[in-house]
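Q: Sequence in, structure out?
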Amino acid sequence: MKFIKRNSLILVIVFFHIIGLIGFILYPERFTGLSYVNLLLSVSLLIISAKQTNVLFYLSLLSIAVIGFSAEVIGVKTGYMFGNYHYGKDLGYKKYEVPLMIGVNCSI
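A: Exactly. Output:
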């Protein structure tokens, strides 16, 4: 059963990446704003496929997301660590000029 579950999840992620690639090639203006969907899908599959989903697992994901988000806030505000940069609107809602999805990105 684990083999089927694992392969099914791999097929889902491959399918979405192929659709995304085709979409970016044919309709980049429509697909650019959907990057957050890929991030949400990836973290969802990570959680679904995890062997152990105890409190420590979820605390680890949350800690990584908070630390990553905090590092990005410091980077955007000060230019320290990564140089001067900013985020556009494609990753959704921002707090302190950094999309919340950045934390999700760091945790996957």
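The mean pLDDT is 80.
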